[in-house]
Design goal:
Structural class: alpha+beta
Largest sheet: 5 strands, antiparallel
Strand content: 25-35%
Order of helices and strands: EHEEHEHEEEEE
């Protein structure tokens, strides 16, 4: 049994795939509308792990199982609890340019060039910006955009 210094436990809920956010929203709604008396202090939906949601609660395992039974798309509470140390890295946001290197082929998903494909020419990790050159451009003009405005298509180096 793993408790925080505040007496809370950390549980892992298994959910229907691609419904993690729905489960978190349904838990919030159930608590706000007094549909349950189970106390939940935090819900974490990590993007890296599909099909799971972390719940922090001072309640015992059986009480959290009661909550899960009333939440749509929530399946089960895993038997073993986890600790804050094990889930702490999910609480720190990743930089928008992580995984993008020079030569990566990306698609612009926002801005005036939305839908265009481009090659990454430079990555600025401090500003979380990348400089790209559009594929179909006659004259290669460098364009600097935010790292979260692109979707990686191919990581191969040219």
């Amino acid at each position: 049994m793993t408790e925080s210094k505040f007496g809370n436990h950390y549980y892992i809920l298994k959910t229907t795939s691609k419904h993690e956010r729905t489960v978190a929203d349904n838990i919030r709604e159930a608590i706000e509308n007094n549909m349950t008396d189970v106390v939940v202090t935090a819900v974490v939906v990590p993007e890296d792990i599909k099909g799971y949601v972390f719940v922090e609660s001072p309640e015992e395992h059986a009480r959290v199982e009661e909550l899960v039974e009333s939440i749509a798309h929530a399946r089960i509470v895993l038997k073993n609890e986890t600790s804050l140390e094990e889930i702490k890295h999910f609480l720190v946001p990743k930089p928008a340019v992580s995984g993008i290197d020079e030569g990566t082929i990306v698609e612009l998903i926002a801005g005036p060039f939305k839908g265009e494909k481009a090659v990454v020419k430079r990555v600025d990790h401090t500003k979380e910006e990348i400089t790209v050159e559009l594929y179909e451009s006659i004259v290669p003009i460098p364009i600097t955009i935010r790292g979260d405005n692109v979707r990686v298509i191919d990581r191969n180096q040219d």
